[in-house]
Amino acid sequence: MSSPNYHTNILCILGAIVAIFFILVFFNQTYINTQPFDRKIFTIKCQDRLLQPKETATNLSHLMFVLVGSSRALKNRRTYIESWWRPNVTRGNLFLDVEPSKEFRPWSPTFPPFRISEDIKKLRIYPKLANRVHIRIYRSILETYRLKQDEGVRWYVMGDDDSLFFVDNIVDVLSKYDHTKKHYIGMFSETIKSNYHMSFEMGYGGAGYALSYPLVEALVTKLDECVERYHYIWAGDQLQSACLADLGADFISEKGFHQMDLHGDLSGLLSSHPTAPLLSLHHFEAVKPLFPGMDRPGSVLHIMKAGNVDQSRTLQQSICYIRAKNWTFSVSWGYSVHIYEKIFTRSQLKRPIETFQPWSRGRPPVFMFNTRPVSQDPCEAPHWFFFDSVEQQDERVVTSYTRKFPRNMTSCSLTGNISADLLTSIRVFSPQTPKQGRKVECCDVEYDYEVADVSNIRLRDCRRDEIIA
Ligand SMILES: *[C@@H]1O[C@H](CO)[C@@H](O)[C@H](O)[C@H]1NC(C)=O
Ligand SMILES: *[C@@H]1O[C@H](CO)[C@@H](O)[C@H](O)[C@H]1NC(C)=O
Ligand SMILES: *[C@@H]1O[C@H](CO)[C@@H](O)[C@H](O)[C@H]1NC(C)=O
Ligand SMILES: *[C@@H]1O[C@H](CO)[C@@H](O)[C@H](O)[C@H]1NC(C)=O
Ligand SMILES: *[C@@H]1O[C@H](CO)[C@@H](O)[C@H](O)[C@H]1NC(C)=O
Fold it and tell me: Which InterPro entries does the record cross-reference, listed alphabetically (predicted)?
């Protein structure tokens, strides 16, 4: 990514050259003499720009990852870290409780370097701590700071050993914020009860959250003092939100971070992700594998195949129609395609199908977002296709989605009895260029009556007044 300031400077210099050229070649001396005022303004403005310290756009090298885990869990969780960590590119450390076992020696370069957390028994408050494990974890921020590896760092990004990060998107989202100010950016839980009992104003730790460097600097000087003040708080991320609030940093939510305080099958949620860059996924051991017929680590590697090609579109929903058949297509890029045998509006399909269960049982409302029920009605229930492969062609990316199980229903009789059972795979064509910002993309479906089992979808910009309904 190149910086906007860099471009402005180049433009300024080019502008100046062109201006001088014009003045020298086309204007006679008398004309120039009538223009001194304007020229002065031009000179001052440009000098201002050129004299500003060069502030480049935020990139991955400006992020310091502070990851926490336990050596015992490493065996089951290694894929989650390895699937997103970029050796020699991403910066950071994995803080462990004890030395990793022999099977991890020598330490693999595919992992972040590990550190053994300091012994917190030395803390005066130790006997009174509500949760000693979480305090060990929490102090990783301080220990990272003391490593003095922060040259050029703009943000600390905190995460667990089972947090899956989409780092290009994290860079994209953090670039929106001024890293020279104090910022605390994360996301609350999907489950109302978790937020009610802990806080609606906190970035959940497994989802991961980001602290701007000035905030880190302010925090670390008072971190142990804050642990003493809130020694009775059980959860480290809740303690963090309290410490940051007292430093005057209020929580900012970004919808792409996912704590995933849910159980069961996440496919409904992952098929209707908000229009926001996907930043993280978490809690893989509490939910079913992300894709049917795969194991958990395999399903994480699978979703990263798409994510490694285009994170800007990963899980982004686009909706289009074959009106002659009364069919609606809903694409969740890199994850799934749904076909409904009825016309559904975007406002309806934005709501996830409730294929999952809440973190803790209880009476509704349980989720922080609206849902649709799983339906057995052939007019309401989609045909499900899941991400199969991704391919880069000249100017575009092709993702393919296949039917993993039959729908086992009759066709929708209200809208013409036109069954989509014959379709076995869907191809989605998207541009190589990343999706711009936080906009919604539209699409067109091509359905060849000769080749009844495949259909092609092309993503495109929405027209100015396009209604998705
Ligand atoms: C990231 O920005 C720094 C300047 O802060 C620059 O030196 C570096 O080359 C950039 N890295 C990439 C990968 O663009
Ligand atoms: C990382 O950098 C080191 C030293 O520059 C090099 O030896 C190693 O091969 C690199 N690792 C990868 C995975 O690129
Ligand atoms: C349809 O039936 C098959 C075979 O009985 C079963 O494996 C599959 O899960 C069913 N599909 C759905 C969506 O219920
Ligand atoms: C589409 O559905 C409408 C009812 O919603 C129905 O009147 C129309 O005939 C259907 N179109 C086709 C091609 O069957
Ligand atoms: C669909 O089929 C059912 C049963 O075969 C029939 O009652 C209904 O009228 C059909 N609907 C349309 C729109 O053709």
Answer: DUF604
The verdict on pTM exceeding 0.70 is yes
What is the residue with the minimal CA distance to atom 5 of ligand 4? 415
Q: Which structural domains are found in the chain, ordered by start?
A: 4-51 (no CATH), 60-253 (3.90.550.50), 317-461 (no CATH)
**Residue among 3, 55, 59, 174 whose CB has most ligand 1 atoms within 8 A, to mutate:** 59
pLDDT at 7 over 90: no
Ligand 4 atom with the smallest distance to the CA of 415 is 2
The ligand 5 site (C-beta within 6 Å) comprises 413, 416-417
Contact 135, 235 (CB under 8 A): no
Residue 431 pLDDT greater than 50, yes or no? yes
Confidence label for 33 from pLDDT (cuts 50, 70 and 90):
very low
Would you state the pLDDT for residue 3?
A: 43
* CB of 346 closer than 6 angstroms to any ligand 3 atom: no
